[in-house]
Amino acid sequence: MVLTLLGRKSESASSKECCYIWELLLSQGLIEEEKLGSFNIPQYTPSLSEVKTEVEKEGSFTINHLKVSEIAWAACGGGGFYSPEYSGKGIDDGYNVAKCMRSVAEPLLVEHFGELVIDQLFQNYRNILSDRMSKEDTKFINVTVSMTRKE
């Protein structure tokens, strides 16, 4: 069995590599501080050592291969999304990443914060992502584990 999941290189569960993309989305000031404080994103990005420890602790599998890889945020695009307002001007990576994140986060955000700010939140997010991606080497971290079931 091979599993690839969002992870992190750092041993710190609050490192930039696992939280930054969410911080950029939620730190715009459009959401009331009280509501923001009670919002929980059901995501955990484990480190390589945490994945290894959990597989070994569970005991049913032997790890054949375990590695960390990096994927640029811009890889969310590549033809999957199209922005009419940018037609003829090239691909807008911020738009693509915002659409990718919106597909995952919108139901959670609407449930907790309501629908009133969603469109503005993601329009701002797109602009923030475009800015950050033009200035930083933004990447997702993946942890991949290949395992064989023990007999």
UniProtKB/TrEMBL annotation:
Q: Which Gene3D superfamilies match?
A: Methyltransferase, alpha-helical capping domain (1.10.1200.270), Vaccinia Virus protein VP39 (3.40.50.150)
Q: Name one GO molecular function term.
A: methyltransferase activity
Stated name of the protein: Salicylate carboxymethyltransferase
Give the GO biological process terms.
methylation
Q: Which organism is it from?
A: Sesamum angustifolium
Q: What family is it from?
A: Belongs to the methyltransferase superfamily. Type-7 methyltransferase family.
User: Which keywords describe this protein according to UniProt?
Assistant: Magnesium, Metal-binding, Methyltransferase, Transferase
List membrane-spanning regions.
Answer: none
